[in-house]
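G., the chain you wanted modeled:
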Amino acid sequence: MSGRACKKISGIFGANMMKGKIWRIDFKDKMITVFDKQQKLANNFATIPFSEENFTNVPRLKAKTRNQNIEFIFDTGSGMGFTINKELYDQIKDKDFLVFEGLLSQSLNSIVKGQRQVDVMDIEINNTKLGNQIIDSSSDSPNLIGIRFIENYLVDLDFINKKITLANTGKSLEYQSFGIAFAPINNSLVIVNKLEIPQLSGLQLTDKLLR
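Predicted structure as tokens:
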């Protein structure tokens, strides 16, 4: 199923179908492997225990950044690294971050517009220092850990022993962006998201791409 209610579905799969197995997500070799017992993971450097939400089985874990303890949902459907709700982000942000304006997110029932900040912060989970990670703020979602974090590691999601294991792949942290994002609207490509920097001041939201 590629869509629901005429809208595209994003993400890998839901936690409620992952329970009782170990799921290895390998972005380097573009492979997902499922095990029914624990496997040895080469270059393992971090093991993170998690708890599960009732009914949804979504993993929850605790992390620390800028002296703030934060509970996150480990969400393979999130396209960002670490997403922190706007109220909490405003408490810990400094003066060095990027601002995007426009369409922030779209669910089956709503579209959220406004501003979000993209930042880099030092993250620690379960006494393991993960170094700088990509952080973005959100006004409409809980605190999430998503794909931009997962893709930098070889990850075992162990729903048997309730833990996440990370292994180094040698991939460095990066945030790739043109500074603008397009969406097809009325048979045209329209700017729906824009980085607020002087170099893009000539472009406006809803401008159309002609060629």
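Residues 86-92 form the longest helix (7 residues).

Shout if anything looks off.
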